[in-house]
Amino acid sequence: MSNLRSNIVSWLGRKYFSRIQKNGFDLSKMSFLPDATLAPLRRDGLDPVADLSRTRAKEPISKIWLPFGINAWLVTGYDETKAVLGKAKGFSSDFTNLAERNIGVAPQQNPGGLGFSDPPTHTRLRRLLTPEFTMRRLSRLTPRIHSIVEERLDEMATAEGPVDLVQAFALPIPALVICELLGVPYEDRDDFQRHSTARFDLFSGANASFGAMSDSLTYLHGIVRKQREEPGDGLLGMLVKEHGDELDDQELAGLADGVLTGGLETTASMLALGTLVLLQAPEHFAAIRDQDDVVDQFVEELLRYLTVVQVAFPRFAREDMEIAGTRISTGDLVLCSLSGANRDEKLGPDMERVDPYRQAPSHLAFGHGIHRCIGAELAKMELRAAYPALVRRFPEMRLAVPAEKLSFRKLSIVYGVEELPVLLR
What we know:
oxidoreductase, disordered N terminus
């Protein structure tokens, strides 16, 4: 079993940054898109680009230009973002809104699940999933999460020279946890990993991202068929056993894909970027290493400060409305910048700085309203286990390259660092 896991992690490290290349709408070649349009997907190191804060201060709901004749708005203010995300009856997140607007996305590429659905479908699906994501039910994963973290640390301890923390630590932890949660058989985990990346990176084009979703769903349909025949003890098996007559295979695959989408790339990015924060601030490193009572609130602060999911799922106005004095018309597309909203001074002073002792404000890193990430508590369990274990095992850990040499994603819904080389001793 240990050899299989080593093979999985080795394969994952080789494949993690491969990019799916397909013809389609390629943002990297559309230099005519104005900075205001691309600003929510760009950063300066760990910080949102300065244009985003300037826009928020001047106009927290601002008009942006998009192709295909779409009338679009960018929301960067905290209160305004919360208002949009909380207005479920006024906005639609249904995938057909994208497919109908001729942006190179076909209806059959609909990933399903919670993120791209509206009530009553969304309500029914979330009701089926919610019991499995309560703290009581998730607590059964606690020992396994700690075991996975320790296994990764043991593996890292055998390395000579620099270690890429992304490949060795940040990505394998949430990947293996999600496998445990879903009940994916060990022999299927190679395929599970292969179909779990590239979907958030728009630098290769929007069509490539949706193509990655389609590939993932094709694979997950196979997993669902196996679970129908012989339900296991994981989330998919539970859904088949308890709600199999209420869910078709498309819905089951979509729910599994949503768990994969929400819990792998995002938590991996948080683990890598959060570690980078600790490596650049020795006082924070020491606090997490030495003070158990700081860990919980520091995790919340890192979630706010980093906000790796940079924008929420696109919303389309169902009706004419006014939000914070701005008139939004039926059919308008609204993009909420979560990274911009979480740096809003309305949350408190000095939001551009990370503070492990800050009394965490109500951040929007997991979204808000009916589409708030259902796996938020699981992600926080992983972060609370991983950060202190890492710095306590390797108290002399440091960057192996100058920080300015690190390569970050250029245009991505989920922000992250490509590699994080560290010296452990």
